[in-house]
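Tokens for chain A. Residues wanted.
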């Protein structure tokens, strides 16, 4: 799954529309805007339709940057 569009964000909490690059399934998922979530959690999210993860087919996955720099007090 990858982020298609961020619906809302309050400090580091957010909700976004995620899309599967393999089957096109979309769903809304809440998350936390930090480097760990973008680098480790999102690539491991399985699609509820086809079961594939971002890293299964895309070894060159590049995570999005956080809205605020790491360590920045929001």
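Reply:
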């Amino acid at each position: 799954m990858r982020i298609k569009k961020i619906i809302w964000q309050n400090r580091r909490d957010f909700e976004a529309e995620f899309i599967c690059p393999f089957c096109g399934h979309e769903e809304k998922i809440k998350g936390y805007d930090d480097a760990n979530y973008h680098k480790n959690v999102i690539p491991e999210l399985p699609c509820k339709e086809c079961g594939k993860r971002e890293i299964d087919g895309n070894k060159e996955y590049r995570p999005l940057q956080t809205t605020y720099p790491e360590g920045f007090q929001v």
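The first strand starts at residue 2 and ends at 10. The radius of gyration is 12 Å.
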